[in-house]
Amino acid sequence: MPFSSLGLSPSLLLALESAKYKQPYPIQTEAIPAILARKDVLGIAQTGSGKTASYVLPILMNLQGNTASKNRHVNVLVLVPTRELAMQVREVFQQFGANLPQKIKSLAVFGGVSINPQMMGMQGVNVLVATPGRLLELVSSNAVHLSSIDTLVLDEADKMLNLGFKEEMEKIFALLPKKRQNLLFSATLSDDLNNFNQVLLHQPLVIKIENEEENIDLISQLGYFVTEEKKGPLLRYLIKHHGMKQVLVFTSSVYKADNVADKLRKNGIDAGAMHGKKSQEARTETLSRFKSGKLRVLVTTDLLSRGIDIKFLPHVINYELPRSPKDYIHRIGRTGRADSAGEAISFVTEEDKHHFKVIQKKMGKWVTMIDSEGIDMKGY
C-alpha cells in the first residue's frame, strides 16, 4: 500500500518522496487514516517501526487551515521522556512541514538549559514537544497555555511511566480541555500503562504491531568472549581492522562511557561520549556530528539511547551488557532499521556468560561466539 492511498496531501507526499520514504510501515498504514479522522489511537510497536511519522504526518495535515489560536495557546502537545527525543520529534515536524502551504511552527522544550529562550520562542507555536517537568515550569510562568489543545500525543509512554513522570503528567492532564484527540504510542503495553489508557483514551483504535523478530532478523549478531582488561584493545582492533564507520558503543555507566571514549581518542579513533552529565549543548553537538558521519564512534548509556535514531546505522557494540533482555533488544535495534542490515557485537566476560545465555533465551536467538584469545591484538 503506497503513502498516496492514506489520504495525505500532495505536499506531504512530496516531502515523503524527498526523504526517500518508499512504503509506509504497518503502524503508519493503520494510524495515519485514523488520526486524519480525528480518532483516538493507541499504537504499540517497537522502536524503529515508524511511530513518529505515523502521528506527525496526519497532525500536520489536520493543522492546515486550522492553526488560528490565541498567542501562547498551542494546538498540539507532544509529551516525551527525554531531551534527545524532544529534539528528534521536533526535527520530524520540521522536515515534513517545511513545504506545507500553511506554515506550522513547532518548538521543543526541555530542562537542563536556560528557560528564557524557550519562553521567548513560544510566540506563535502550533506544535509543542515537551518533557513534563519543563512544560510545567513554562505553564507556571504563564509562557504557555494548554486550554486550546486539540491533540495530545504521549510518545514512549512506557518509558515515561517507568521514569516516574506519572505525577507530573496527571498535573498536565488536569490543565487540558476534556474534549481533545488523544494519541498514545509505546514500545510495550505494561499493566500500568493499560490502566492509564482506560482513563486517557476515548474509544481508541488499538494498533499492536508484532514485528520484533522481523527486525532482529536484519541484524547480524556476534559475541566475543573477552576478559575485562582486554575489552579496550578488542574494541579498537574491531574498529580499525574492519574499517568500521558510525559505531554506537553502549556502556553501563557514565564513568565507563567517558573512559572508553577517552581511550579511543588516545589511540587515534575519533570518538565522543554522550550521557546525562554532559551539558545539553555538548550532547546536541556530539549527536549531530555522529548522525552526519563526522564522528566515527559514539559511546553512550541506556538512558540516552532512545534519543538516537539513525536510519542506516551499521554497527552497535555492547561494551558492557545491559541488565535486561528488553534493553538488549532495544540497544541492538538501533541498527538493522529501515529494512537495511546491521551488525551487533557483544563483549562477554566469564561473569557475563550466564546472563548472556538468559538474554539469548528470552530473545529466541543464539549468538555465534568467538574466543578473543585467538586474536592478535598487539598494537591495539
Characteristics of this structure?
380 residues, alpha/beta, Rossmann fold, 7-stranded parallel β-sheet
How is this structure best described in words?
This protein is 39% helix and 17% strand. The protein has 2 domains: 208 residues, P-loop containing nucleotide triphosphate hydrolases (Rossmann fold), CATH 3.40.50.300; 162 residues, P-loop containing nucleotide triphosphate hydrolases (Rossmann fold), CATH 3.40.50. Helix 13 links the parallel strand 10 and strand 11. The chain contains 15 helices and 14 strands. The strands form 2 sheets. A 7-stranded parallel sheet has the order 3-4-2-5-6-1-7. Helix 2 packs parallel to helix 3, helix 3 packs across helix 4 and helix 14 crosses helix 15. The protein is an alpha/beta fold and 380 residues long. The mean pLDDT is 87. It is globular, with a radius of gyration of 22 Å. It starts with 9 loop residues before the first helix and ends in a 9-residue tail after the last strand.
Q: Quick one: overall form?
A: globular
What class would the helix/strand composition place it in? Answer: alpha/beta
Please indicate the count of domains. Answer: 2
CATH class of the largest domain: Alpha Beta
Architecture blueprint of SSEs:
Layout: H1 10-18, H2 26-36, E1 41-44, H3 51-63, E2 76-79, H4 83-97, E3 106-109, H5 116-121, E4 127-130, H6 132-140, E5 151-154, H7 157-162, H8 166-175, E6 181-186, H9 191-200, E7 205-208, H10 212-217, E8 219-225, H11 231-241, E9 247-250, H12 254-266, E10 271-274, H13 280-291, E11 297-300, E12 315-318, H14 325-332, E13 342-348, H15 353-363, E14 368-371
Parallel strand pairs: 1-6, 1-7, 2-4, 2-5, 3-4, 5-6, 8-13, 8-14, 9-11, 9-12, 10-11, 12-13
